[in-house]
Amino acid sequence: MRAYRLLDWQQPGFSDVPDPDPAPGQVRVRVSGVGLCHSDVLFLEAAAGLLPYDVPFTLGHEIAGVVDGVGDDVAGLADGDAVAVACMSPCWTCKWCRRGADNYCVNTWRGRGFGADGGLTRYVVVDQREVVPLGGLDPAMAAPLTDAGATSYHAVQRVRPKLDAAAAVDAAVAVVIGVGGLGAYAVQWLKLQTAARVVAVEARPERVEAAQALGADEVLLAGDGLSRRMREAVGGDGADAVLDFVGTDQTINAALRNAAKLGAVAIVGQGFGSGQVRYGQPAHDCDVFNPQGAPLAELREVIALAQTGRVTIEVEQFAFDDVVTAYERLRTGSLNGRAVVIPDAGTAGS
Ligand code: NAD
Ligand code: ZN
Predict the structure, then answer these.
(1) How far from each other are the two terminal CA atoms of the chain, in whole angstroms?
(2) Are 92 and 35 in contact (CB under 8 A)?
(3) Which ligand is nearest to the CA of 105?
(4) Would you state the pLDDT for residue 128?
(5) 323 lines ligand 1 (CB under 6 A)
(6) Separation of 117 CA from ligand 2 center, angstroms?
C-alpha cells in the first residue's frame, strides 16, 4: 500500500509499505479519513535530533475508518464497523494509565503518526482497546474528533469547574485564542457544556464569521493591543478561563494578564512562546496548565457528543494524492476547517 511518510528528517514523501495484518487483540482499520493537525507541521519541519522519534514513519494521527480484518481474541468488533482510532497506544499499567491519564502514559511520547506508523495510507493495525465505535457517524468526517476534538475537550474539562463556580454567582467568561482545528471545537464544547460567554480571538478575518457560527459570542482580531482589547471584551474582572491554541509570546502574555482571580489559563498551542509570571500575574489563585492530548475516556465522550448531532465538524476534504497541497494549505493558514485526506480518493492502494 502507498503511504505518505517522513522518510527522513525534513524529507516527507510517498513510499510503498507492506499491508499490515492484525495480531491477536488487534483490528485492521481501512482508513476513511485522516485529519491533518498543526503539530504535523512541526514534525515535517523538525531537523534531525530535535524530536525523540526514529524515522521513517507514516504521518497522520487523526484517523477514522472501517474495521477490515479482526485478529484473534478480539471481542465486540467486526468487519464493517466504523471506528475512530485513538492517537496513542497506552500501556494501561503505568501509574499515569492507572490514574486514567493515559494521555500521559510512559509509552505515549510517540503515537500513530509521530514516531509510529500513522494513517496516511490504506490500513492501520490498532489494539482493540484503542478504537471507539462511531455508530452512524461518517468515518471520513469523524477523523478530526480524535485529536482536534479530544484535545480541546480535555482542556475544556479542566476549566469547567472554574466556569461553573463563576457562573453560579455571576456571569462566566471564557476566551479561546485561535479558532482553527482545535479552537473550533473548544468554542463548541464551552457553549455545549458551560454557561460561559465565549470571546474568540483569531488572526484571520475570514475565520471571524466561522467562529460566530460555531457559537462565539464575540470575536476579536489578533494584533496590536490584543491584551487591552481582550480586557475590554471580558470585563474588568478578567476571564474565568483562557484557552490559548496559539502559544506565542503575545497570546500567552495576553492570557496571563487577562485571566481572572480563581481562573485558569491553558497553553495548548505549540507556538513555543513564553509569558511573564510574577507575584500578581496571573491574578491570585489562577491556575496555568499545559495539557497534551486527551485520555481515551474523553475521546469516547467526544464521540458520544458528536453522535447527538450537536457538534459541527468543519472539514475540507483532499484526495490522497493531494496531501502535499493539504499540508501546504495548513502551513500557510488558508484552510477553513480541518484538512481531511481521503485515502479512497487517490492511489493509496486497494
Ligand atoms: P490550526 O492551524 O488549525 O489553527 C490555528 C488557528 O489559530 C488558525 O485559525 C489561525 O488563523 C489562528 N492563529 C494563528 N496565529 C494567531 C494569533 N496570533 N492569534 C489568534 N489566532 C491565531 O492549528 P491546530 O491544528 O488547531 O493546532 C493549534 C495549536 O495546537 C498548534 O500549535 C498545534 O501544534 C497545537 N496542538 C497541541 C496539542 C496538544 O496536545 N497540546 C495537540 C494538537 C495540536
Ligand atoms: Zn501507561
Answers:
(1) 7
(2) no
(3) 2
(4) 98
(5) no
(6) 19
Q: Which fold has domain 2-147+294-342?
A: Quinone Oxidoreductase; Chain A, domain 1 (3.90.180)
AA identity, residue 25: G
Mutate to test the pocket of ligand 1, among 40, 112, 114, 268 (most ligand atoms within 8 A of CB): 268
Quote the ligand 1 centre to 183 CA distance (angstroms): 7
Q: Where does CATH 3.40.50.720 sit in the chain?
A: 150-289
Number of other CB atoms surrounding residue 219 within 10 Å: 21
**What cell was used for 203?**
488572526
What are the residue ranges in the chain where pLDDT is below 70?
Answer: 346-350
Digit-coded pLDDT (tens) for 230-267 = 999 999 999 999 999 999 999 999 999 999 999 999 99
CA of 38 to the centre of ligand 1 (A): 6
Q: Does domain 150-289 have CATH number 3.40.50.720?
A: yes
pLDDT at 344: 87
Q: What is the pTM of this model?
A: 0.97
**Residue 350 pLDDT:** 46
Would you state the cell numbers that stand for residue 13, as one nine-digit string?
A: 514523501
